[in-house]
Amino acid sequence: MSREELLQLKGIGPKRAADILELRQNCEEPFKDLQDLKSIGLSDRKAFSLFNSNIVQKVIFSSS
């Protein structure tokens, strides 16, 4: 998912999109749990909400 596509998701702004892209580049595995989302500064509530989003699970958490 590109920066532009990330910015279209509710709750993802320019800084968070950059953090997500940086983590994806530097990690050997895709995001897999709430702790991975919290590592980019999301609150428990926001991380839970994004993690349970079908869009996020299909795009952000996949390696493609």
From TrEMBL:
Q: Quick check: keyword DNA repair in the entry?
A: yes
Check the record and name the InterPro entries matching this protein. Answer: HhH_motif, RuvA_2-like
One GO term in the molecular function aspect is: DNA binding
Source organism, top-level taxon: Eukaryota
Q: Name one GO biological process term.
A: DNA repair
SUPFAM superfamilies attached here?
RuvA domain 2-like (SSF47781)
Q: Name one Pfam family in it.
A: HHH
UniProt keywords, alphabetically: DNA damage, DNA repair
Name of this chain's protein: Uncharacterized protein
